[in-house]
């Protein structure tokens, strides 16, 4: 099926600002609560949110085989389970409906009142019920920085790193959408030269700049996904702030990996940008430094040129950009991650989420965490309001943004913005 | 509310074998497919499965506030979310209905035909949709054995082990009920003195003898569960065979923990035995060897005396018991695990599953994995059919069983039985 929704020449009859992340070529999918307190699946063009449940009830998708309630749900899981053919048909149809040359909805005032919402009339929800959240560790720059800081700069990468897209299972229950604040976690840490741990608030709360892809149901128990089929099962991407408590992690993570240092919160942007919308922005992945095993070898361009940015906004002050990175730096790409994840027969379901790991680039300003940007706090970052940051302070808001741009078309992710509140106190 | 269902003197009008795991004092909960291809929630007395959906429709639970479809579901999640008061009321009512002195259902042939099933007429399903699966590492004997084998017998426990109920996030999508066979996983391993990994079938597939508890929804994001409230949120327990590929694990697990070595399958027994049913079998936990932080300090008996057994059955041969252990050996108990898991504010939902980690006892015959029982394969186990096992062979079936017994009442878990098939081959 053609990707006609990607036609760069199309304009929408809905207003779209020049620098909007959401031109008619984007058409992301999300879930929102409307002004009438109804949960629906929707998309967004410019600053207008579109109720796909209502559009479908009004008959605008009648030529696509869809169940009646496919958009009247509180998650995208069932729609995603319908597969790529359906996603494409729906996206192409939405592009048609909102094409400036199409008068049908444009001239129907009554229908427009039902399906269109201003952004301040809706509340974005978590777009999927995440069955399993996997987090990879796929940036060579990040792995090298961490290895240099905590082990040996001469042998920064662990022996398995160049052979395995290293990953671990994360916690689904604490994945939250942009806008939900997070409390500074408490936990055990081992201070300086102490031999006994202490309990208290984490002193080293950090962000991790990541992206995550959302899958459709892919395979049965026992059956690997071959790497040349993996792309079929990727619905789209979101921005991911994989909150981390560095001091808790340091004490807990040997030998079974990070646990409470991560599971207090992982924040995502609420609009899933489809892999189809990102098609024009494909680029080559970094060249492998070693021979990779056959099940990890792929053909074609499997990385995406997505500009990423992180800001910190202290309470009541302006935000300061602290990192500029790019998704294309990932050493291991998504099809390698998915092929690896399933090579043992692990089943992947609709709504599973797989994070990239911290996305650090080759230059110090492109590092994807405060740990790296301040080099363990040794080089604090100067903020616009004159204050300094080694890690994240109480009441700081961390904002991540991402977009692709090529020949005048910009496809963006909006933002994931999360305020860090002080430690939770029982009322 | 009283635990009248536990009355040891009660007899059922349903036949119960003397050594049955499922006397009327048990009343576990599960989900099964009936002879009419309907999924329902049920319980079991002796070798009779009872359709609770049908019983409820027939009015037998009318004096308990329950939604009409609470048992007509394909998972127990909603029932579990109703909370402990409801679980107790339903369990007490079931005990009444099947009490030998109660003629109402006993004398109603038509109703009995609707609600009662022989075990060969039903197919047990996964009892819950597992939102998140956490696996702990709470047996001091297991941690000591592993540390002795792979690190230093003099310093077998890692520095954090006596302070933290160490755990990690597992994979929910590959949790399966007893009876579903599992393929030997493939993956990367680093052979002997090689410097480059190879790809192929795992050569060291092992079981891990565990139990797991299932939770109800407990807390909001950010809000810890105090240890003295933790028990409120534990619905019940199952047997868990946490399949492990030792060679894959060895190469992949540093620094983020086990991943593909575990996520190919985790098998559980299908009947959830409630914590209420286990009440008579409470025992003290092992005495802490160090001072534990305040949030991990508890009062009372929080461990349970549950006899555990593992058998291996080669294809077409008799089974051989290879391990006899007990759940009471766990150094860290369930309330400590749950308090620790949420101390950072991580939310726990209805249907989450938390594994104990391998349950090894103090004696070599009580070790909970082949890794320990054969000491890395150095001391193969002799099987009844004359063959030997270092790890699990293709077409072996691993069977775990568990039960409590006291003053003539036996409460058991049935079994989790899983056949290991050869590597998956695409047809």
Shape of chain A: globular
In total, how many domains does the architecture of chain A comprise?
2
Structural class of chain A: alpha+beta
List unreliable stretches of 5+ residues of chain A.
none
Estimated helix fraction of chain A: 10-25%
> Architecture of the largest domain in chain A, according to CATH?
Alpha-Beta Complex
Compute the CA-based radius of gyration of chain A.
22 Å
Give the end-to-end Cα distance of chain A, rounded to a whole number of Å: 56 Å
CATH homologous superfamily annotation of the largest domain in chain A: Fumarylacetoacetase-like, C-terminal domain
CATH class of the largest domain in chain A: Alpha Beta
Number of strands of chain A: 26
Query: Which two chains touch over the largest interface?
Result: A-B, 67 and 67 residues
């Amino acid at each position: 099926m053609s990707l006609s929704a990607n036609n760069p020449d199309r304009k929408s009859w809905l207003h779209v600002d020049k620098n909007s992340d959401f031109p008619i070529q984007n058409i992301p999918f999300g879930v929102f609560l409307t002004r009438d307190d109804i949960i629906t699946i929707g998309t967004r063009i410019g600053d207008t949110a579109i109720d796909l449940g209502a559009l479908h009830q009004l008959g605008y998708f009648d030529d696509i085989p869809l169940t009646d309630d496919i958009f009247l749900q509180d998650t995208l899981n069932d729609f995603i389970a319908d597969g790529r053919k359906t996603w494409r048909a729906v996206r192409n149809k939405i592009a048609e409906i909102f094409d400036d040359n199409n008068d049908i909805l444009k001239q129907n005032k009554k229908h427009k009142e039902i399906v269109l919402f201003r952004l301040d009339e809706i509340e974005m929800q978590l777009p999927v019920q995440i069955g399993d959240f996997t987090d990879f560790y796929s940036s060579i720059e990040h792995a090298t920085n961490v290895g240099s800081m905590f082990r040996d700069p001469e042998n920064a990468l662990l022996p398995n790193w160049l052979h395995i897209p290293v990953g671990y299972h994360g916690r689904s229950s604490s994945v939250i959408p942009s806008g939900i604040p997070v409390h500074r976690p408490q936990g055990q840490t081992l201070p300086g030269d102490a031999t006994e741990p202490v309990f208290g608030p984490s002193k080293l709360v950090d962000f991790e700049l990541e992206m995550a892809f959302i899958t459709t149901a892919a395979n049965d128990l026992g059956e690997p996904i071959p790497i040349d089929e993996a792309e079929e099962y990727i619905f789209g991407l979101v921005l991911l702030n994989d909150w981390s408590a560095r001091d808790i992690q340091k004490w807990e993570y040997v030998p079974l990996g990070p646990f409470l240092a991560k599971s207090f919160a992982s924040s995502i942007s609420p609009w899933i940008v489809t892999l189809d919308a990102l098609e024009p922005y494909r680029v080559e992945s970094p060249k492998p430094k070693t021979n990779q095993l056959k099940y990890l070898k792929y053909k074609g361009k499997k990385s995406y040129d997505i500009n990423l940015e992180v800001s910190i906004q202290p309470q009541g002050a302006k935000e300061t950009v602290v990192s500029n990175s790019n998704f294309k730096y990932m050493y291991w790409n998504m099809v390698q991650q998915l092929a690896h994840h399933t090579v043992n027969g692990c089943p992947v379901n609709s709504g599973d989420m797989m994070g990239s790991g911290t996305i650090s680039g080759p230059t110090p300003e492109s590092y994807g965490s405060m740990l790296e940007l301040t080099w363990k706090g040794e080089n604090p970052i100067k903020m616009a309001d004159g204050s300094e940051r080694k890690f994240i302070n109480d009441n700081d808001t961390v904002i991540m943004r991402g977009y692709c741009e090529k020949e005048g078309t910009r496809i963006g992710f909006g933002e994931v913005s999360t305020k860090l509140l002080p430690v939770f106190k029982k009322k």
